Amino acid sequence: MSFKKESLRTLTTSVFLGAVVLCVSFVSQGECQTTPPPTPCSTYKSCDKCAPNAKCLWCFTTNNCTEYPVSWLLPPPSVCQLSQARWGVCWLNFEGLIIAMAVLGGTILISITICCCCCCCKKRSSRPDRDEERFVRKREEIKQRAEERNVERKARHDQIRKKYGLMSDSDHPYSKFENE
After folding, report:
1. For residue 80, what are the contacts with CB-CB under 8 A and spacing of at least 6?
2. CA–CA distance, 17 with 23 (Å, rounded to integer)
3. In angstroms, what is the C-alpha Rg of the chain?
4. Does the pTM exceed 0.70?
5. Strands of 64-67's sheet in order across
6. pLDDT digit string, tens, across residues 51-77
């Protein structure tokens, strides 16, 4: 258990230091470089040039590139119909993108739920195993004590039989027939 805690602590420290180094490198890059002014979306005349830019939206209805309406989650029909809008890639319309993202998100959520349920089930199923082991151990102890009591009882009975002459020396195989 301490090995797991130690490795978890080491992993956490490594991730933290990596994040700090990454932040410092981004800050230092930002100070050294100057960014050119952004190209307006209206200058792009093809879907292949427009769609890869995250701030731009290509509409096949009007064949023009427009600024993505960031105030809306989805572009309104006044800008472009979802079936004709392209964002990110030209071969996938916005409706397909929404469906694909919903399926992907649903799959991830279902996978996480199943994994969590499996982990909980393993924890629950391990408890009866411990209880079962404890029960088997107690049963063995009870059997052992009962066997010890049987040996003691047999020894006492043999002593009583010897005392009253009910048990003779059993040196030969026919000794039990001599008393009759």
Report:
1. 57, 59, 61, 62, 66
2. 10
3. 41
4. no
5. 64-67, 56-59, 85-86
6. 888 899 999 999 999 998 888 888 888
